[in-house]
Amino acid sequence: MFGVERSRAERVRDGLAVEGLARVTDALRQANVDTPVVNTGVLAAVTGANVVVGDDVQVLQGVGAILRHRP
User: Fold this and answer.
1) 54 CB contacts (<8 Å, ≥6 apart)?
2) β-strands 33-39, 52-54: how paired?
3) What radius of gyration, in Å, describes the C-alpha atoms of the chain?
4) Least crowded by CB within 10 Å, which of 16, 37, 43, 58?
5) Residue 66, Cβ neighbours under 10 Å: how many?
6) Which domains does the chain have, with CATH numbers?
7) Would you state the pLDDT for residue 29?
8) 37 phi and psi, to 5 degrees?
9) How far is CA 27 from its chain centroid?
10) CB–CB of 7/37 below 8 Å?
11) pLDDT for 61
């Protein structure tokens, strides 16, 4: 699953991923989310972005995002 692997990789890299509802919501408000990442226990409605959903997605509070640019 490319999205899950990319999410894991970006968390290790230089600030191109965030986790947790507050940080993801902030990034969404700034139009800085390239790909929302959610585990299957969380539902999300988005426009203009890819969405990664999976049972093996482990992010804080069940939600994370791969960013378009560093905040």
Assistant:
1) 1, 3, 4, 39, 40
2) parallel
3) 11
4) 43
5) 22
6) 2-67 (3.30.1330.30)
7) 92
8) -125, 120
9) 9
10) yes
11) 84
d(CA 64, CA 44): 11
Structure tokens at 30: 């700034």
pLDDT value for 26: 93
Distance (Å, whole) CA 43 – CA 66: 17
The answer to whether residues 36 and 49 touch, using CB atoms and an 8 Å cutoff, is: yes
- What is the Cα–Cα distance from 46 to 56, expressed in whole angstroms? 21
Give the span between the Cα atoms of 69 and 43, in whole angstroms. 24
Tokens 């509802």, residue? Answer: 21
- Encode pLDDT of 16-58 as tens digits: 888 888 988 999 999 998 888 877 666 645 456 677 777 777 8
